[in-house]
Structure prediction request, 157 residues.
Amino acid sequence: MKRLASVLLAGVLFAIGLGLSGMTDPNKVLGFLDVAGNWDPSLGLVMAAALAVHVGVAQWALRAPKPLWAPAFSLPPYTTIDARLLAGSVIFGLGWGMAGFCPGPALVDLVAPSAGVVTFVTAMLAGMFVARAGLRAQASSGSASHREPPPRPMGRA
Prediction:
């Protein structure tokens, strides 16, 4: 229950930050991507500030023997840049640029939904479902070239 509460709190803080910074407005995203026109650097500044806060907090947290509500720290299992990562990044970027929505801000915008936001979130969820089903089918056929390694534990021994 504590873990669920901490996830909920993190999500609420993220949503409040997106709302306060104006990053739920698709025009902010499109303005950031329009480097040859009327460029708006505010998205980059928000990302840089978020990264700076995250790095500081993560370094502080990893000094603890274990997380508050988990048996051990767990870092992402993949550390290499491969074709799957690059393809996913390109598809994500194309969708973001075409729609002007990033998944986080789109979910925040569901508080006061428009047809565009609902359509985007529905399409995003359908795409996640199709991609996951495809990966499961690939794994069950034995042709998976990208196996899931176990998470790497972190923290003090």
In short: The chain has a mean pLDDT of 84. Residues 115-140 form the longest helix (26 residues). Helices lie at 2-21, 26-33, 42-61, 83-99, 103-109, 115-140.
